[in-house]
Amino acid sequence: MSTAHSAREAVLGRVRSALAGTERTPLADIPRDYRIARPAADLVGLFCERVADYRATVERVEPTGLTAAIAAAAKAVGARRVLVPSGAPQAWYDALRPEFAQVDDGEGIDTAGLDQIDAVITTAVVGIASTGTIVLDHGPGQGRRAVTLVPDVHICVVEESQIADDVPAALRRLDPNRPMTFISGPSATSDIELNRVEGVHGPRTLHVLVTADLGSRLQTRSA
């Protein structure tokens, strides 16, 4: 018998001796609420804090100031050509169009064309407070996956009611049959000599605008 095996048997023997005569609780009777309920006192605040930890810019804005905040975020990075996917609020498209050289819904743009877009502005489906992650399922207002990976800047609007506490809570809100993109800060890698380089596999800049629920107050734009 090897020394390692002997040591293992000795440890297990001590455990069995310590447990001898003790009453064991059936696994089914052990409370496991911690697995599905770990609410934070301030989900929105925690989400904003964790998003900022990833070197993303995050702002909390009132719905009435959202359109102005979107335009300001695009101007701050010097964007001139902006993509707003169909299904986003019509007001965003209307307000941006006079300000920028090109505002497009991205429906007919190929990858080479997307490379000429400075910034994409999208909605989201879920935000995860504990990890600062944004999830897109590429439904209305989010565009196909390429439109959020090719442009250098991604401005994303997250409604407060979309913020879940943790990953399991977020997954319960998602449709597993839809394509999903999980975004935790700007695209970055440290593969080469541990030097962090941003913008390698996706946007170099992520700007998150957190707002109260928009509901049906804003008419969406069709393709």
TrEMBL record:
This is LUD domain-containing protein. InterPro entries: FTHF_cligase-like_sf, LUD_dom, NagB/RpiA_transferase-like. Signal peptide: none annotated. Residues 115-210 form the LUD domain. Gene3D superfamilies: NagB/RpiA/CoA transferase-like (3.40.50.10420).
